[in-house]
Amino acid sequence: MDTSRPIIALDLPSAGHALNFVSKFTDEKLFVKVGMELFYAAGPQIVTELKDAGHDVFCDLKLHDIPNTVRGAARSLSRLGADLLTVHAAGGRAMMEAALEGLHDGGSTSNVIAITQLTSTSQQALRDEQLVEAPLIESVCHYADLARQAGLAGVVCSALEARAIADATAEDFLRVTPGIRPAGSAVGDQARVATPGTAASMGSSAIVVGRPITQADDPVAAYHTIRAAWQSGQDT
Ligand code: C5P
């Protein structure tokens, strides 16, 4: 799994849109993320199609249910050959362990990472909507440690939390960071954002970038600019 490439979030409405989008990159092998929008529209075969085309695939379905159901879902997903999968840490340790069991039953070696707090969640929403009085960073580090105890490979987190998570878990515990915005680009619905260069210097292990690439006038150029900043740690 080569995380020196930004992971492109293919939040697109159909298999046709997704395959057309990746075809703009001609011979380049990408690391793409299939989330709920595309997976539910195009079906599981979009993952195998992208894999067959030589791309790495992050299947971001954020599983969150009782352990038995998540075990079964993970067993079904194991057939697709995704490189990375997500579950919600809020589902609990037993649920995260069940996800690993389901994948293992299906013979898959996919890495599983946990969502801690969505990067669209602010400190105020944590307090007012989840009734959690703890600082956001404490909630995130607590969930990260729970995920590590369950045997997961890492977490999805904001760049602003990456260093604290590495300190609370281990340096090789993956910190996969969405909410990436090149300087001056639209934040949209994200609350905890960072530039690619900042994410690199703050200890993210991988970055996930959606709209700044998919909605760009020239997605290939936008991808290369963001990749250069991520790899060098210097925003242009
Ligand atoms: O378009 P944008 O760059 O905001 O896309 C970010 C992607 O990362 C989306 O696909 C979103 O679902 C995903 N994500 C996120 N925050 C999380 C976990 C996943 O934004 N905590």
Automatic annotation (TrEMBL):
GO biological process terms on file: 'de novo' pyrimidine nucleobase biosynthetic process; 'de novo' UMP biosynthetic process
Q: Which residues bind substrate?
A: 11, 33, 60-69, 119, 181, 190, 210-211
Is Lyase set as a keyword in this record?
Answer: yes
Coiled-coil annotated residue ranges, if any? none
Annotated active site residues, numbered on this chain, are D60 (for ompdecase activity), K62 (for ompdecase activity), K62 (proton donor), D65 (for ompdecase activity)
Name the enzyme's class. Answer: lyase
Q: Which UniProt keywords apply?
A: Decarboxylase, Lyase, Pyrimidine biosynthesis
The EC number(s) given in the record are 4.1.1.23
Q: What is its pathway? A: Pyrimidine metabolism; UMP biosynthesis via de novo pathway; UMP from orotate: step 2/2
Reaction(s) the record says it catalyses? orotidine 5'-phosphate + H(+) = UMP + CO2
Ranges for the Orotidine 5'-phosphate decarboxylase domain? 5-226
General function of this protein: Catalyzes the decarboxylation of orotidine 5'-monophosphate (OMP) to uridine 5'-monophosphate (UMP).
* Family, as annotated: Belongs to the OMP decarboxylase family. Type 1 subfamily.
Assembly, in brief, is: Homodimer.
* PANTHER family reported for this sequence: OROTIDINE 5'-PHOSPHATE DECARBOXYLASE (PTHR32119:SF2)
Can you say what this protein is called?
Orotidine 5'-phosphate decarboxylase
- Supply the source organism's classification: Bacteria, Bacillati, Actinomycetota, Actinomycetes, Propionibacteriales
